[in-house]
Structure formats: C-alpha cells, structure tokens
Amino acid sequence: MSLIGRPVARHDARAKVTGAARYPADLVRSEMLHCKAIFAHRPHARIDGIDAARAIALPGVVAVLTAADVPYNRYGLIDADQEVLCSERVRYVGDRVALVVAADPQTAERAAKLVEVAYTDLPIAGDALSALEPDAPLVHEHRGTNVLLHQKIRKGDIEQAFADCDVVLSATFTTSWQEHAYLQPDAGIAYYEGETLVVETAGQWLHEDLRQIAAILALEESAVAIRYAKIGGAFGGREDLSVQALLALATWKTKRPTAIVWNREESIVGHHKRHPFHIETTWGAKRDGTVVAVRTRTIADGGAYASTSVEVLKCAAIFAQGPYRMPNVATDAIVVYTNNVPSGAFRGFGSPQAHWAAESMITRIAHALEIDPVDVRRKNLYRDGDTEATGNVLPAGVSAIAVLDRCAQESHRRFTPRAERHAHASLRRGVGIASGIKNVGYSFGFPEQSTATVELIASARIERAVVRIGAADVGQGVHLILRQIVAETLELALESVAIVSDDSAQAPNAGSASASRLTFMAGRAVHDAALAARSAWERGEPPEATVQYRPPATTPLDLETGAGTPNYCYGYAAQGVEVEVDVTTGVTRVLKIVSVHDVGRAINRQQVEGQIEGCLAQAVGYALTENFKVRDGKILTPHFSTYLLPTTLDMPTEIVPVIMELADPHGPYGARGMAEMPLVPFAPAVAAAIYDATGAWVNDLPMTPERILAAITAARERTTASAASLVGASSSPA
Q1: Are strands 224-228 and 196-201 parallel, antiparallel or unpaired?
Q2: In angstroms, rounded to a whole number, what is the distance separating the alpha carbons of residues 21 and 14?
Q3: Angle at 412 between CA 586 and CA 697, to 5 degrees
Q4: Cβ neighbours of residue 696 closer than 8 Å, sequence gap 6 or more
Q5: For residue 35, how far is the Cα from the chain centroid?
Q6: Which residue ranges make up each domain of the chain?
Q7: CB 535 within 8 A of CB 484
Q8: Cα–Cα distance between 174 and 300 in angstroms, integer?
Q9: Rounded Cα distance, 39 and 186, in Å
Q10: Quick check: do 277-443+558-713 and 449-549 share a fold?
C-alpha cells in the first residue's frame, strides 16, 4: 500500500502530548551558568556609559558582557546591520546592551538591575510615513536615508488604461504588527564538546544560525555546531537570531556551559514581528468586470533593523494586484527603517498584506458593477500561460480558477441562505469569498537548494535507510513527510527509515523551514538521494548518495520596472467565510470557513488538514483580535493579557479544509508547499462577509469591534445623507 496520502501518525506525537519531549528550556542543567539580557527599553538613544561594578561585585556573578566582548559585533540574515550588544546607540526598545552571566537565574536577575546604563535620548522615527519625511531622524545615520528598498513594477500604460475604464475605485488600507506567539519562548543552552562550541536551541535554519554565530565570534564554521531541540512553533519568528548569539558569546567568553530562558515579555520585545503596511491603491475595470489597471503605493514599517524586509516587500509588490492577470500595473513598494520593533518573516511573508488590499478591491469592483464577486474573480484570475506583472510567464500548474470554483460550490452548499441571514434584530450574517496566491520557496535570484544524504543498510535486499538532512521541524511535521517520501521511494516500511536532522555537523543544508518550501525542496532532495543510493547499491557500489536539488532558477527584479523571474512555484487558495456581526457593538464571530487549497499532492493528508486549521487560527487573530500596539517606539502590548490571541471560543465550529491535488511538475510525487496559504486570502474574505452583513467596509486590520462599529455608523450616516439628498431633490421646484 502506498504511503503517499496516508494519514500516518507523527512519531513524536506521544512524547509531545505526555511532556517527555525536550524543548530548549528543558535542556537546562543545574551546573550551568545563567544569562540575563539587559534591554534598552527606549526606542532611540546614545549610550553614554555602562557601569557594571555593582553587578560584578554581587556574589555569584561570573561576568557582565558588553559590546567590547564581541569579536564581530554585527549580524543579520541579509544585511549585518544589528549588534549583538549595542556599542554606541540603541535603535529600538528590544536592543540588548549588556549580558549578565551568573550562577543561577535569581542572581542574574538581581545583577541585571544593578547594571547602570547612561543614555541620551534621541529623536525617533515613530512610523513609516513620518520616516519618509525629509527632516525625519535617521535610524542608521551612515545610510543617509531611512529607505531600505523602493521597488517599482511597471507594465502597460496605466494612465490610458484608467481613462478607458468604466469604473475606477480608490481606497487606503492599513495593517498592523503581528506577534508570532509561538508556545515555547526563546531559550537554549551552549557548551563545549571538546574543541567545538555547541549551541542547542530552536530555530528555522541550522546552517544559517551556524554561519552567523561563527562570524560573530570570528571562528571557523567547523568550530561551531548548532543543534535543535524540539521546536515549539516558529511561523517565521525564529528566522532571525535571538538568544543564540548571546548563549554562544557567554560560553565562548567563560568556557563554561550557559543557559538562557526568556520570559514571554522578553520574547515579545526581543524578536521581530509581521510588517505593518500602509497601502493606497486604485483599481479600474470595464463594464463586463474585466479589471485592466491597478496602481498601488505600499509603505511598510521595517523597524530598526533590516531582517528580511527587502524580500517581504518584493513579495508584496508582485502580489499587489493579487492572483489576477493585469495588463496595466504601476506598483511602488517602499520599506523604511523606523525606531520600532524590527519587522521580518511571518507566515505569508508579505502576501497577506498585499491581498488585504487587492482582494478587498476586486470585491468592491464587483459590487460597483453589480456582478457576483465570484464571477469577477473567475473572469480575471490567472490561467496557464499568463504573464505576471514582472513580465514573467507563470510557472506551470496554475489552478486558481479550479480552486475558486470548488470554494464557491462548497460555500454555497454549507452557508446560511441569504433569506435567513437577518433573523435576529441586532445580529446580521454575511458571507464573503477571496482568492490567493503565494510563492513556494526562495525568490528573486536567491540560490535556492536543498541537500540530503541517504544511506542504505542492505544485503540481499534493502532493509533500512538513514536520511540525513538539516530540515527544521517547527511543528509542521516535515520529518514525517520526508520519511514517508523515502519509504515510498525505496518500498520500505515507514519504521525502516530513520532521520538525522537536528545537528549542523551531521545533517546537510536543506535551507530554512520557511516559504512553504521544505515539502517541495527537502522532499525532492531526499527523493532523489534515495533513488541515487538505490542505484549505487544495484551497481554494487557503497549504498549511499548525497544529492543537491536545485529548482528552476529565478532572477532579481529590476528596481525600476520590476522585470524578472521572481519565483519557480506558486500555490493557489480560495476561502469562503460566514460571519455574524452584532451591529450594536461591532463584535464579529466567524461561524464557518471553507478553505480550499491545491497542494499538488498531499503526502500526509491529516497533516495538510492540520496545517490549514492551525493557520486559520492565526488568520482569525490577524483579521479580528490581534492588535499589537506601539506608540512612540514603545510596545504597549508586551503580554498576552493585552495582546488578544484567539482562543477555542473564538474559532468557528465548522472549518472545512478542502484539498485539491493538481500535481506540480517538480515537487516530490507532485507535492508543493501550502502551510502559509490559508493566511493569505482570509482577512479580505472576512471583510467581504462583514460588508455583506452590514453594508460597511472596513479598511484597517485588525477589524476590532470598535473599527467595525465605526464603519457601520459611517455607512448608516452616508445612507441617511444620500436619502436626504434624494428627498431634497425630489421636492425642489421644477
């Protein structure tokens, strides 16, 4: 029986639910020193001096480390623009200025309060719009500008296209930060194993963590090993270093084992968030519903450091018109430094923000033309052979229309009929639909690859296989997926395939657990390595093979025109949503969700359904409840008591995950990644449902009760004013 598609149980499930699984905080041992980071707690300031004398004098304190102790005090995924410990200036409240190393957590805590840091506060760039002003304070003075990237995309003749349109609509949309809220806060240990500095923690890319830590300590990469314990969620939030560099520094300096465990407030303040966007957009269409022109100006808040902002912005730029064929496009996407918490990778990677505007606008176009929103989407959605805004022909396997049609069918069958939606005086029900597109894998010319080794234990037949691949399982279940692929390829029982994946010294580089890429990329690498190892065994050679899989190449985008080949694979999604709105309070409940995804091939159907349902929980929070607030650079929601994550009571009682399998030509057994897709179209589907229920459009995320109620009130006032003007006109003398 084929293992592909079967809902095989996770091999780590029992240990996780019983508490036997060891996460980074579980690795701490009694003999270890404990680290306490001293945060700046101010958004922009010059460091005038650090006096650690009182702290060092405290019994049990081993060291207080500062910038002078760091050999190469720079790091970053793309731009090394962040300091491990700040030397002259702090640029956001979560900057670290010193690190206490002590015998126990209590002593470290006490000592941290005794370290005196003298600051001179500096003017701040408090938001993305003000950071663009000519007289704005510079976050990084040597750059001479706060602009990290200004990406343009130009296609067709935008002005002539608008002039020829029958309807032209404009709107401004905003989104806010979103906290990753992974269950396991940042933690880890570091120690020496012989001459090798070992850091055990949780991350998303073993070999990238290795590269950065070796560089920080000016060591050869062979002198450092990164090992991952169980990872309690990530969602992009562990792409950037957090505690890893602090641990490595402390052990390198003291030559003793060290540990660090951040509390929730430290975790929230100390790692990056989803980018807030300000989007101004204009859409133009013909009377038959053909959308022919989109102009968009997007400004994103990148926060104090670069992280992955330039890549997020480029993704948002190419999706500014959503998953729609568009002959005329003018996109300006700008991301700026501010003195806010850094923004970086988060599930969806710029696509949810872009779709918030794009999907809202195409629904408004449909209503303005009095055409069903499904029909307008069907008319305009990408098809095989279409070119995207960059001028590139879309990768084969465009399933946007098939996914939309399935979503419309399922929604019509399951949602409350229109005649029954206003049964209660103050409760209104509405339905909405939205489509989505998201790239799979790295983009814009990044050298995408995944490497795996498969070793066979065989005599007269292949008995077992050992897979070595540095692929992080952040809860998504990729280790099981990779074992299923190898077992299927070699015709082995699943129990006969072992995986070595959590040690940079033993497992080849598979790339990051991000961009919905590991099923596609790592899956293809282990598939091809398994075939190569079997072929070697059949030839009588040592039954082992290491294979690097490289997908079709991408290219950078031209900064002025956007011309290029941005991606090698896309995933397509569509969602139908039914909501209930209390028009007296604005409180909105999501009642039902139909979430349709073309996954190419579901390697493990249960895990795909779990990804859809879990992602929708984050999507509900992003759309309705998670209001991360920052004022003058200071985080106002550093606790879960004020940052409102959705609970089980906020989730709909009916979630319908629909899996379509239109095989990808390059993925293993036709599979493509999908873990980010449910977040992409969800918020605009909810907004469309709120409009269907109330006649009010909401433009700002999250759609809190206050914002929804304000939109309902404004819509009523417009209706009243319009009715009054009609009455006045009819009573005027001829």
Answers
A1: parallel
A2: 9
A3: 30
A4: 690, 708, 711, 712, 714, 715
A5: 29
A6: 18-122+183-233+238-270, 277-443+558-713, 449-549
A7: no
A8: 10
A9: 15
A10: yes
pLDDT in tens, 244-272: 999 999 999 999 999 999 999 999 999 99
- Rounded-to-integer distance, Cα 254 and Cα 470, Å: 29
Question: What is the homologous superfamily of the domain 18-122+183-233+238-270 according to CATH?
Answer: Aldehyde oxidase/xanthine dehydrogenase, a/b hammerhead (3.90.1170.50)
Best CA proximity match to 601, nearest among 664, 654, 693:
664
Rounded distance, CA 593 to CA 624, Å? Answer: 15
Residue 731's pLDDT band, with cuts at 50, 70 and 90, is: low
Tens of pLDDT, residue by residue over 221-237, are: 999 999 999 999 999 99
Strand order in the sheet with 33-39: 61-65, 96-102, 33-39, 258-261, 187-193, 196-201, 224-228
CATH class, range 449-549: alpha beta
The answer to whether residues 540 and 546 touch, using CB atoms and an 8 Å cutoff, is: no
Reported as a single tens digit per residue, the pLDDT across 132-190 is 999 999 999 999 999 999 999 999 999 999 999 999 999 999 999 999 999 999 999 99
Q: Using CA atoms in the order 410, 413, 414, 417, what is the torsion angle rounded to 10 degrees?
A: 130
Q: Can you give the three-state secondary structure of 180-206, one letter per residue?
A: CCCCCCCEEEEEEECCEEEEEECCCCH
Find how far residue 283's CA is from the centre of its chain.
27
Q: Which CATH class is domain 277-443+558-713?
A: alpha beta
pLDDT in tens, 494-550: 999 999 999 999 999 999 999 999 999 999 999 999 999 999 999 999 999 999 999
CA gap 366, 373 in Å, rounded:
5
Beta-carbon contacts of 58 under 8 Å, excluding residues fewer than 6 positions away, are 102, 107, 110, 111, 114
Map residue 391 onto helix, strand or coil.
coil
Inter-CA distances, 46 with 8, 121, 139, 198, Å:
56, 6, 12, 34
Structure token pair of residue 210: 């290795």
On the question of pLDDT at 284 being above 50, the answer is yes
User: 119-142: per-residue pLDDT in tens?
Assistant: 999 999 999 999 999 999 999 999
Q: Which residue has the tokens 């055990």?
A: 200
Q: What are phi and psi of 647, to 5 degrees?
A: -105, 180
Q: Is the model more confident about 423 or about 37?
A: 37
Query: Which residues, at least 6 apart from 449, have a Cβ–Cβ distance to it below 8 Å?
Result: 509, 511, 521, 548, 549, 550
The pairing of beta strand 96-102 with beta strand 33-39 = antiparallel
Check whether 734 has a pLDDT greater than 50.
no
Give me the DSSP letters along 285-346: E-TTS-EEEEEEEEEEE-TTS-TTHHHHHHHHHHTTTTTB--SEEEEEEEEE--SSPPB---
Three-class secondary structure assignment of 467-526: EECECCCCCCCHHHHHHHHHHHHHCCCHHHEEEECCECCCCCECCCCCCCCHHHHHHHHH
Structure tokens at 424: 């209660």
pTM: 0.96
What does the buried/exposed string (b/e) look like for 154-172 if buried means 16 or more CB atoms within 10 Å of the residue's CB? Answer: bbeebeebbeebeebbeee
Q: What is the dihedral of CA 423, 425, 427, 430, to 10 degrees?
A: 50
